[in-house]
Amino acid sequence: MPTAAELKAAKEKIQYKDGVFHFAVAGVAGSGKSSLINALCGMSNQDPNAAATGIVETTLEVGRYTNPSHADHFAWYDVPGSGTLKIPDWQYFNSQGLYVFDCVIVLFNNRFTMTDQAILMNCRRYRIPTFIVRSKADQHIRNLMKEMGYDSDDEGQTTERMYKAAREQFIAETHRSVKENLQEAQLPDQRVYIVSHKSVLGIVRDKTPKRTIDELELLRDLHNEGYKSRKHSFGVPNGAYTAAQSL
């Protein structure tokens, strides 16, 4: 457990403020943490204020980001990916000061790891709410379509049927994998949200994406968690996101 001095230092490091709800996005390197945070803050990866993204891990220090529409109520934190720093996986939670956050999003891309399990275990110790999110859904579905023989010149119902088949396969595989990993770690079953950061960005910008999986539900549930704990709302404009709140 952190000492009082360590707790104070960790809060100062992230500019912790009373009345603000602090979301950390953590996980292994390359899971898409920066892109998701940019989307949640209504920014594209090319925005001058956006979190840096790249093929290799670009986050070496915890970064603090906000959406101007609710900057006084919510803050999003890009946590360095495990495996990029000279820190054993089992020390990742404490070394990054995750115990000071109000909520932790455990983000993964290809596979759910022991580090992800350890984050969830420690969050339970500290009674910190968690969300399990799988990123880059659009990329994974495209890859499955190619494995099924998809040709980019295909059009019409054939393409749509193949997309639906790949989507269903990806969702089923993700649910099964997470369930097995949680059982292996002797953790209670927990929902996994499957998202594309492009779809999240579209919703936050008050647009309706053509294809979604769990993006609306994730935004709704994040909103509810922050509201329940801090009596705030996201303050995002009407439209698609309002629809998410009403689900």
From TrEMBL:
A cellular component annotation (GO) from this entry: membrane
Spans through the membrane: none
A Pfam family this chain is assigned to: IIGP
A single GO molecular function term of this UniProt record: GTP binding
Classification via PROSITE patterns: G_IRG
Coiled-coil blocks: none
InterPro entries cross-referenced by the UniProt entry: G_IRG_dom, Immunity-related_GTPase-like, P-loop_NTPase
Residues in IRG-type G domain copies: 19-226
Family: Belongs to the TRAFAC class dynamin-like GTPase superfamily. IRG family.
PANTHER family xrefs: INTERFERON-INDUCIBLE GTPASE FAMILY MEMBER (PTHR14143), IRG-TYPE G DOMAIN-CONTAINING PROTEIN (PTHR14143:SF1)
Name of protein: Interferon-inducible GTPase-domain-containing protein
